[in-house]
């Protein structure tokens, strides 16, 4: 009986192998040959799923974005008694607070650098940036709706400030994990959210 292959799952496994190669060796060394070896496939088999390296990188980048969005969606559909805890959980999905999120964050920053010179990646990068920006706007609007921020808060400015803070925390932790620990990230985020209340 012929083996049944789940093609979508295979593509995801290849993308995850690409992440591993990128994190270990850098984007410039993420060759099709290395990714094929990491995923346990021949180069020909990999090219069946991704005819070009650009298509593989684009899919890999989209997968990072989709995983983060899925986890955020899950939090939003789990009722929590404390709205502030719910918001911290949502924002936490965008920060490298465990091994999975650390790999995703590393890959995302590498892709973002590559997007400066690759138009296809830049378009996706812009799309995800807009989605993230809108997510932070919704966070601030939610905090306003439940009365957890001061009345004179400028929502647009605070959404941008929160977005910049989260990006900065993620980057600083990746570059200097011993100086900006995971607990420090959580403490800084909690402190920032408290400043919106007074």
Q: How does the overall form come out from the CA principal axes?
A: elongated
Report the top-level CATH class of the largest domain: Mainly Alpha
**From the 3D coordinates, which CATH architecture of the largest domain would you assign?**
Orthogonal Bundle
Q: Indicate the low-confidence ranges by residue numbers.
A: none
Number of individual domains: 2
Count the beta strands: 0
Provide the CATH superfamily of the largest domain: Tetracycline Repressor, domain 2
User: What is the helix fraction of residues, given as a range?
Assistant: over 70%
Q: State the helix count.
A: 9
InterPro entries: BetI_C (IPR039538), DNA-bd_HTH_TetR-type_CS (IPR023772), Homeodomain-like_sf (IPR009057), HTH-type_TetR-like_transc_reg (IPR050109), HTH_TetR (IPR001647), Tet_transcr_reg_TetR-rel_C_sf (IPR036271)
GO molecular function, one term: transcription cis-regulatory region binding
DNA-binding region: 31-50
Keywords: DNA-binding, Repressor, Transcription, Transcription regulation
Brief synopsis:
The chain is 74% helix and 0% strand.
Helices and strands, with pairings:
Elements: H1 7-25, H2 32-39, H3 43-49, H4 53-76, H5 83-92, H6 99-115, H7 119-145, H8 155-175, H9 182-195
Describe this structure in words.
74% of the residues lie in helices and 0% in strands. The protein is mainly α. It folds into two domains: 1-51, Arc Repressor Mutant, subunit A (Orthogonal Bundle); 61-195, Orthogonal Bundle (Tetracycline Repressor, domain 2), CATH 1.10.357. Helix 1 packs across helix 4. The longest helix is centred in the middle third of the chain and has 27 residues, at 119-145. It is elongated and about 60 Å long. It starts with 6 loop residues before the first helix and ends with a helix.
